[in-house]
Write a structure and sequence with these properties.
Blueprint (H helix, E strand, L loop, with lengths): L1 H12 L3 E5 H9 L10 E2 L10 H18 L4 E5 L6 H7 L10 H20 L10 E4 L10 E3 L2 E3 L9 H7 L3 E5 L3 H11 L26 H6 L6 H8 L5 E4 L1 E5 L8 E5 L4 H5 L8 H11 L8 H4 L3 E4 L4 E4 L5 E5 L8 H9 L8 H4 L1 E2 L2 E2 L3 H8 L6 H10 L5 H14 L5 H12 L3 H9 L10
Parallel strand pairs: 9-13
Antiparallel strand pairs: 1-2, 1-10, 3-7, 4-8, 5-6, 11-12, 14-15
Pfam family, one: Helitron_like_N
Protein name: Helitron helicase-like domain-containing protein
Organism: Pisum sativum (Garden pea)
Length: about 450
């Protein structure tokens, strides 16, 4: 019911909310378009909604950003609630109830156990010093599923990888596996951020399959379809317990070309009123320029490194020196097809302390007209370094299939000068997953073929 109310509010109110570029609104206003209802684009199910597809995708990207900054994780630990814990049975035994009858008790006890386990690992260094960690929380009922191996029934009690100290202390299934392998990390982060539970459903066509009518995309409906909320998940969410966590924190760094910052407004807003707001031209990115002018130490930092020393105050729309802790900066990914925005992102990975867009376009005291020209002057384009760097960066979070599709788009765009050179430098990344797929198709793990 609570989730349905939130989704109902989004459905009724999101149609009133629009987003447009600053320079576009100026053009609309000049051309006589005065009402917000005639401009912009609709917002559907945003990444700010907990559990949405965009939400879990951002968690995946954040996890991969931590890996690229600190390194691959060493341990993959699964901690499962034990319904026979004394703390649970003490409350249920006197009233003759089963653990499944009181998901609220299960959730509260597991939360306390989980917090203690996290403290043992991260603060008390039971397994060694921890540089970074992350976790999702899943709520799934034990359905009694077992595996039959050589005629012997096997369940969680027979899982081999474990830690004796943790197992003895918590009296629960705690599976602990070594996972520091580059080939499995992307799958691992996609697995733990795969989203909510779904019930089984059959797909049935609603016509004879010959209709060519375009189908309207309703992300809220897609989210609700087959959505399954177990009693334990419902109680966990009602208590407002966290469904994920990570350390260090990851700051998502947005950027835009000049005059291209996003402005949010409603159907009822008049465009000239929106444009008259003092903060209409301000953004996280332009505030970075101001901070570089104000703080000398900021002039030696790139945009992604900047957040390790400064924190963004959203209400004031300004950057302040960080007092404690540290944060990893993650530049929002944009594909090469975005043109100048892509080249701006490429320059942001190298330029330190710019005070304006012109500073980013300046290379060796020469100001260029476009970010693409600046990239060319930096040598990113002439020898195809930008494309090699793009594929290598996308490899931190993208699957092999995505990398191959990205390479195809680069080839079709005609912008690569030496395709064979780019292939030779990235073929081991582009081939990721092909061998495994062929072995699975042939049901033969012995298949090996070289990369041309």
């Amino acid at each position: 019911m609570m989730e349905s109310e939130r989704l109902r509010w989004l459905r009724k109110n999101q149609s009133k909310l629009r987003v447009g570029k600053y320079h576009n609104l100026n053009e609309y206003n000049s051309n006589g378009e005065t009402h917000g209802s005639n401009t912009g684009k609709r917002i559907v199910l945003p990444s700010s909604y907990v559990g949405s597809r965009r939400y879990v995708d951002q968690l995946y990207f954040d996890g991969m950003a931590i890996c690229s900054y600190i390194g691959f994780p060493d341990l993959f630990i699964t901690f499962t609630c034990n319904p026979n814990w004394p703390e649970i049975q003490r409350l249920l035994g006197s009233v003759h109830l089963k653990a499944s009858d009181r998901p609220d008790i299960i959730s509260r006890v597991f939360k306390m156990k989980f917090d203690e386990l996290l403290s043992d690992i991260t603060k008390k260094s039971l397994l060694g010093k921890v540089l970074a960690y992350g976790f999702p929380v899943y709520r799934r009922r034990d359905n009694g599923h077992t595996v039959l191996k050589n005629g012997i029934q096997v369940d969680n009690r027979n899982v081999v990888p474990y830690n004796a100290k943790l197992l003895t202390k918590y009296q629960a299934h705690i599976n602990m596996e070594w996972c520091n392998q580059s080939t499995s990390i992307k799958y691992l982060f996609k697995y733990i951020n795969k989203g909510y539970d779904r019930i089984t459903a059959a797909i049935v066509p609603n016509d004879d399959g010959t209709s060519n009518q375009p189908q309207n995309i309703d992300e809220i409906k897609q989210y609700i379809d087959c959505r399954y909320v177990s009693p334990s998940e419902a109680s966990w969410r009602i208590f407002s317990f966290p469904i994920h966590g990570r350390k260090p924190a990851v700051e998502r760094l947005y950027f835009h070309c000049e005059g291209q910052n996003s402005i949010y407004y409603t159907d009822f807003d008049r465009i000239n009123t929106v444009l008259e707001k003092p903060s209409v031209t301000e953004s996280m990115f332009t505030s970075w320029f101001e901070a570089n002018c104000k703080y000398p130490e900021a002039q030696n930092l790139t945009y992604s490194k900047f957040v390790s020393k400064f924190v963004y105050v959203k209400k004031k729309r300004e950057w302040k020196p960080r007092q404690k802790g540290y944060t990893i900066g993650r530049l929002i990914w944009v594909p090469p097809t975005t043109g100048e925005l892509y080249y701006l992102r490429l320059m942001l990975t190298h330029v330190k302390g710019p005070r304006s867009y012109n500073d980013i376009k300046t290379v060796n005291n020469v100001k260029y007209d476009t970010f693409r020209d600046a990239c060319f002057a930096m040598g990113f384009i002439s020898d195809d370094r930008e494309f090699i760097a793009t594929i290598k960066e996308a490899n931190h979070w993208g699957s092999g299939q995505y990398l191959r599709l990205l390479f195809v788009h680069m080839l079709l765009s005609g912008s690569i000068n030496r395709p064979r050179h780019v292939w030779s430098k990235t073929c081991h990344l582009l081939a990721d997953g092909i061998l495994y797929a062929q072995q699975r198709i042939a049901n033969n793990r012995g298949i090996i073929f070289p990369i041309l």
